[in-house]
TrEMBL record:
An annotated GO cellular component: nucleolus
GO molecular function, one term: RNA binding
Stretches with biased composition (Basic and acidic residues): 323-335
Compositional bias (Basic residues): 38-47
Stretches for region Disordered: 1-76, 308-348
PROSITE patterns associated with the record: RRM
InterPro entries: Nucleotide-bd_a/b_plait_sf (IPR012677), RBD_domain_sf (IPR035979), RRM_dom (IPR000504)
Keywords: RNA-binding
Name listed for the protein in its UniProt record: RRM domain-containing protein
UniProt KW Metal-binding keyword: no
Compositional bias of kind Polar residues: 49-66
Pfam family, one: RRM_1
Amino acid sequence: MSSTELETETPLPNKRKRNAETAEIEIDVEAPEPPSKKALRKAKKAKVSNGSKSPSETNKTIPSTETQEDASRKVSKRSEYGIWVGNLSFGTTKDDLMSFLTSDPTNAIPRNQITRIHLPQGPPKFGRAQNKGFAYIDFSDQQCIDIGLKLSESLLGGRRVLIKNAKNFEGRPEQRRDQIEKQSQPPSKRIFVGNLDFTTTVEDLEAHFGVCGAIVHTHIATFEDSGKCKGFAWIDFEQVGSAEKAMRGWVQRGDGADDSPAKSNSSKSKILLHRLHGRKMRMEYAEDKATRYEKRFGKAAKKAAIGEGDLREDSGINEVDDREEKSELMEDSKKTKPSKSPGKYSEETVQRLTGAIIESKGQRTVFE
């Protein structure tokens, strides 16, 4: 065998570096992201825990679709018979309420008659869950309500609970009347907007209230030196209905002229208008410019000003004798003179402290 044949048969050494021209990498963009190591470990642990359970237990834990539908229907249909329980301690639980209602020796309620216990939860404190101090409990009939009302002022967790009918609203503070009822001005095309942020501009107001309807003019009161908003403004709408929508505080999506400025990604059907830049605005109907000008600078205002001046002049003209006038002036001067209130130091001490010349008040003694 020749040396040339051996050279041809010997394989070439493998190169570690890849040839960029020959190597082609295919990447599937639509392929799902591979799971991380942490996710793989969790899946492995879950398989081990599920494998230890018997098939009967797994069937119990997985409810059927029919039972889920029945449960949702039961939750949606609330009972008409319920009570309100107040003055609860923040650590009270649903089990405590259940035992409180069913374990009383004289006024016990059967467990099957209690259809719902709603205990609103508040923010946790020191890592422990806390309720808001009250609960709603529903029953299946009116007799259970009568028995539950007898348990009022009984001890639960060291506190005397207050039990009332869930439909009894006595003792609650009166709700605030609607702002529209409080308006002193009749509905008009012009509204007053207060409690604005100092950075508010005309564009912000027009974009915010543009969903109500067409805006004719927006006037913002500004500072002379900085030109920033003073905190209030006036908005003139083209129609009275647009002003009424703004005063109502919300607009149904699609009712306004242009919904694009106040659109959001949420699926809510209402656009709220009572807040701007995180501040709750105060809105009132404003007078028209013509009526406002007439009140301030019209003929009626001038006549009223002239009438007040005449009354002042007439009230000052009185015939008085010279002696009586002098005596009255003397009495007025005495009354108007400020009385010297005694201070902390006497007059002599003040003169010494200030370095003033003090009149001598010593007594002369003569020796015979």
